[in-house]
């Protein structure tokens, strides 16, 4: 969603008002055409803004329902942070010390092929 769309509404409305209060008013064909163009531009922009607002995800929720969803998500976030903190505080130790692990080394795997 572009904030520019919503920000442009007020200047477009102000332009329409300026055209109607212009010294020549809307008596000339040019003035009528300019007013028609400005009005149509405003109506189209307003229609786009309404469509974007109507299609917002979660837009059907009331303010109290939105607050409840936010509280629930914050609680989930806090639980995950607590679990992560507990996990980070644990000391990690191998079940078998590394010195007791038998490793097999395949000498041919590290030898360049000569044939």
From TrEMBL:
Pfam families: Med9 (PF07544). Keywords: Activator, Nucleus, Transcription, Transcription regulation. Its main location: nucleus. One of its GO terms (biological process) is regulation of transcription by RNA polymerase II. GO terms for molecular function: transcription coregulator activity. Signal peptide: none annotated. Transmembrane segments: none annotated. It comes from the Eukaryota. GO terms for cellular component: mediator complex. The keyword Thylakoid does not apply. It is found in: Nucleus. InterPro entries: Med9 (IPR011425). Component of the Mediator complex. Component of the Mediator complex, a coactivator involved in the regulated transcription of nearly all RNA polymerase II-dependent genes. Mediator functions as a bridge to convey information from gene-specific regulatory proteins to the basal RNA polymerase II transcription machinery. Mediator is recruited to promoters by direct interactions with regulatory proteins and serves as a scaffold for the assembly of a functional preinitiation complex with RNA polymerase II and the general transcription factors. Belongs to the Mediator complex subunit 9 family. This is Mediator of RNA polymerase II transcription subunit 9. The gene is MED9.
